[in-house]
Structure formats: C-alpha cells, structure tokens
Amino acid sequence: MLPPRFLRRLILAPLLIVLTVVAVVTLPIWLLVVAAASLRLPPPQRRGTRLVWFAVAWLTLESMALVACLGLWVAGGFGGRLHRDEHQERHYALIRWFLSRVYGAAVRIFRLSVEVDEPPHTPDELSRRLTRPVIVLSRHAGPGDSFLLIHHLLVLYGRRPRIVMKAALQFDPSLDVVINRLPNAFVPRKVAESGILTEIRRLASDMDADDALVIFPEGGNFTPRRRWRAIFRLEEKGLAEEASRARRLEHLLAPRPNGAIAAIEACPTADVIFVAHTGLDDLITIGDVWRRLPVRAEIRARWWRVRSADVPRDRESQIRWLFDHWEKIDAWIAENRPAPAGT
C-alpha cells in the first residue's frame, strides 16, 4: 500500500539520500564482492560490476535531482507558484538533465547505442514538428524502454511528455516529487479502466503544440505469457476478429484501444506517432538482465507519423487502424530484431 504523500516526503526522500551516501562510501567493497562472485563465470557473463556502477550512478543522480526539487520548491514560493509555466519549464529542464545523465551513464557503462529511423525530412514532416501536439503510441518491452522514449522526446525532439503511470512508481522519491508537479497521472493498480481513461482525457484535452501524451497500448511489458492472456481475454469478450489478429502478432501484445481512442477524442488536432523498438526484448526479468545483458546494448527504433486529418474518427475504424499499425510494428520488429542476447 502506498503511504500518504507527507510520509513519502518525510521518510522515503531522506532515505534515498542516506542510501546514496552509503552506496558511494561502500562502492569499493561492492565492486570487490561482485567481481569475486563473478570469477566463476566466463568473461561474457561478468556483468555484475557494470550493474553496480550503474546502480550507484542512478542513486547519485536521483539524490541530486531530489535536492534540486527542494530548491525549485523554495524558488516557487514554497510550492505556491509551481503551477506557473516558468516553474513547470524548470522541472522539465530538470528531467531533461537527469535523463541525459542517466543516458550518458548507460552509454559508458553498457556501451548503449540507440539508432532511430525517422520519417523522411519532407517539408510537410518538418512543418509538423513542434507545431501541434502528438499522441505517442509505443510498444512496451525490454528494460528501461520508457525512460529511453521520454529521454528522446525531451532531449532530441523538444517535446514535453505527459504519461499515465502506476501509482507504485511513487515509491521512487525523485520520480514521485517531480512528476507530481507536472501534467501527469499516477493510477492505483486496481483502479477501474474508466478512471484511467478519465486521466488520459484530462491530460490530452489541454495539450499545447510542444506536448506529447505517451501511451503504451499493450498495458504492460511484453512477455509470452501476457501475449496469450491478451488473446484469451479478447476471445472471452467475443472479439473473434481482434483475437485472430492478435494471434498473428509474434512480438507484441494485442493493443488495448480504449486509451488511444480516449486521447484522440480529447485532442482531435493531435498527430499520432507510432513507435517500434527492438534490441533488448529478451531481457524480461532481473535474472535475464543479470545472465544475458550483452556487452554492447544496441537498440534500434523507428517511428511513423499519422497526421491528425488521417486518423479515423469512428470507433470500429479506429480499432482496425490501431491493429493495422500494430501489425506494421510487429513486422518491423521481425525484420530488425537481433539474435537473442547470448552469453
């Protein structure tokens, strides 16, 4: 159960800073212990020290962001002016700084590389960038894919992302503080779908030209078990056509259309961006990361834009359209997916 906000600020935020100090002070010990434990493994499997370095880097950056949030709170009239545009922009700048540093750490420690295949830079495509809001519909698979997506939206494309997240993520103190000060939403695990759709409509309804509402239509990270559960759920509802199309998706869960449709209805002027990515798909659990994280973490991504004028407006057409694009993403993944991460 998630503690009340004042308890999270009183306990979890200071605890994060204490843990960071302890982690930094004891870092040499952790490195020695993990390195010794890894000696019995062949060299390609000795990932422990890299994971320790990244964990400490993450904790350090989180603590720095948390201290910065305190400074922004004071500068914002002890919270009274945080809703104003200039203070909102400072928080987006803080997230941009944090994700850039995390991304840089991943590049150095995991040799991360991200190759993005964009639409051709035609005059029409360039004219639509930062001139209208977008609804981003992305697949959800692999460790850290949501962080990479938000990083690229903020840093490379100058967008201000909005997202609906699980309430449990508020156990992360810096995420809890900064995200709750911006147009985002945290929803409890057992909330009714209507509650999630209400939040999506709220976030979509007042987007400006540089805003981006991020939705993961699959509803969670891809796993083979979830894939079959999604198909079974469609069959239970009597949606034979959707179930049949979902069976043809090898790398994706069947999309849940209600969130995307709610966003489109709430912001009909928004273009829709579909995002595909592959590279670390096989790393589903923490154990997978420990055993099979490659020496070089290479990710390929591609996105497509659908102009607002080309988005279907009736529900049945929207569902078919969404499945059409999901099949397109699935085919792209099949063509670009690397061999399973080996040891």
UniProtKB/TrEMBL annotation:
Transmembrane segments: 12-39, 51-75
Family annotation (Pfam families): Acyltransferase
The Phospholipid/glycerol acyltransferase domain, residue ranges: 134-280
SUPFAM superfamilies in alphabetical order: Glycerol-3-phosphate (1)-acyltransferase
GO cellular component, one term: endomembrane system
Name by which UniProt lists this protein: Phospholipid/glycerol acyltransferase domain-containing protein
InterPro entries: Plipid/glycerol_acylTrfase
GO molecular function: 1-acylglycerol-3-phosphate O-acyltransferase activity
Alphabetical UniProt keywords: Membrane, Transmembrane, Transmembrane helix
PANTHER family documented for this protein: 1-ACYLGLYCEROL-3-PHOSPHATE ACYLTRANSFERASE-RELATED (PTHR10983), 1-ACYLGLYCEROL-3-PHOSPHATE O-ACYLTRANSFERASE 3, ISOFORM E-RELATED (PTHR10983:SF24)
Keyword Transmembrane in record: yes
